[in-house]
Design a protein that fits this description.
This protein is mainly alpha-helical. The chain folds into 2 domains: 1-107, Rna Polymerase Sigma Factor, Chain: A; 115-183, Winged helix-like DNA-binding domain superfamily/Winged helix DNA-binding domain (Arc Repressor Mutant, subunit A, Orthogonal Bundle), CATH 1.10.10. Helices cover 70% and strands 0% of the residues. The longest helix has 26 residues, at 69-94.
Length: 183
């Protein structure tokens, strides 16, 4: 039997840690994708995803609408990613060239972890989209959810979700020089 997010939240609050593990399993890829879309490397995105779930677990008792767990969680993910980006900028601004560590050439294994050029271009284009459009694209194409399922998960009308998908895909078509209108 597949439990809803709301049921898993209630079970977690009642002390069932396995229920929270199911929530993590269900939402981990989308939370990871939010961090990637914000410009973090995969290892950083994984760390941020872990931080998001720790914050969610600690704050779960404050969630007033358990059926809105996904929307609440993705909000936490957005805030954690924004905080990490600000911290990264502050670290870069605070380090002068004279105190910067010497950079070594990356190992071959590390080179393979870097995103290829096409992936980097796609992530750059995604970062240009408004957060709500990025999220529906992530849920639609990474999680393979239907617009109806996305609407249910986010607690929004299906028409709103379809509109966000339409606008996001239109932007990406223009960004990559594809024909607009032929879908």
């Amino acid at each position: 039997m597949a439990w809803s997010d709301a049921e898993l939240v209630q079970r977690t609050l009642a002390g069932d840690r396995e229920a929270f593990s199911k929530l993590v399993e269900r939402h981990r890829r989308a939370v990871f994708a939010v961090a990637l879309q914000r410009g973090f490397q995969p290892a950083e995105a994984d760390d941020l995803a872990q931080e998001v779930f720790v914050k969610a677990y600690k704050g779960l008792g404050a969630l007033q609408q358990p059926e809105a767990f996904a929307r609440w969680l993705y909000g936490i993910a957005g805030h954690v990613a924004a905080d990490a980006a600000r911290a990264r900028r502050r670290r870069r601004e605070g380090v002068g060239l004279e105190s910067a560590p010497e950079v070594e050439a990356p190992d071959d294994d590390l080179v393979h972890l870097e995103l290829d050029r096409d992936s980097a271009e796609v992530l750059h284009a995604l970062r240009e989209l408004p957060e709500d459009q990025r999220l529906v694209l992530t849920l639609r194409y990474l999680e393979n959810l239907t617009p109806k399922e996305i609407a249910e998960r986010l607690g929004e009308p299906r028409g709103t979700i379809r509109s966000r998908l339409h606008h996001a895909l239109g932007y990406l078509q223009v960004a990559f020089g594809l024909k607009v209108g032929a879908r």
